[in-house]
Amino acid sequence: MKLVRKVALIKEGIITSILDYDLKADNPEAGLVDITFADPMPVVGDTYDPENVLEDPIWRITSGAMQRRFTIEEEAAILDHGPTVLRVVRERLINSVSADVIMPELIEGIHATVDWLSTQDRDVVEGEEGYGTKIVTDPATRKEELLKWGDEGEAYIGE
Q1: Residues near 104 by beta carbon (within 8 Å), at least 6 away in sequence
Q2: Dihedrals φ, ψ of 2, to 5°?
Q3: Domain shared by 102 and 47, yes or no
Q4: What domain count does the chain have?
Q5: Torsion of CA 80, 85, 91, 95, to 10 degrees
Q6: Residues 64 and 132 placed together within one structural domain of the fold
Q7: CA angle 48-54-56, nearest 5°?
Q8: What are the tens digits of pLDDT across the range 111-146?
Q9: pTM over 0.85
Q10: Is the domain of 72 the same as that of 16?
Q11: What is the C-alpha to C-alpha distance for residues 129 and 133, in angstroms, rounded to an integer?
């Protein structure tokens, strides 16, 4: 999947246009600045603020890194009790070389997996810690954890 970048053309400190660009383009001296990950995203007419422009986050991580984000309990539940579609999502993840945390298909698969895990009781016997609770108790937070930007140790180095 190719990342389409947002690039701002800046004249005298004012953003005069914003373009979609398929390569990294960052040349502040020429008035061209990559704003793909700016927060908040500027609009034409804004004053350029370099403090709002983030370095490229790591959005492509190894499949092993993505798999390690799941707990053993979550993986076991998917393997032992998960619907076929979730087992297929897991197999595709394991058999790929990388995981793009911005890819719509991956996001959809993670959301479906977490939503299902939030309906599953923990495999804990009565009287033990965690008995009577679900595997995932806060689906929104768990989705954010699984789809967060990668770190240097998770980065996929390749094409």
Answers
A1: none
A2: -95, 135
A3: no
A4: 2
A5: 180
A6: yes
A7: 130
A8: 999 999 999 999 887 888 888 899 999 999 999 999
A9: no
A10: no
A11: 9
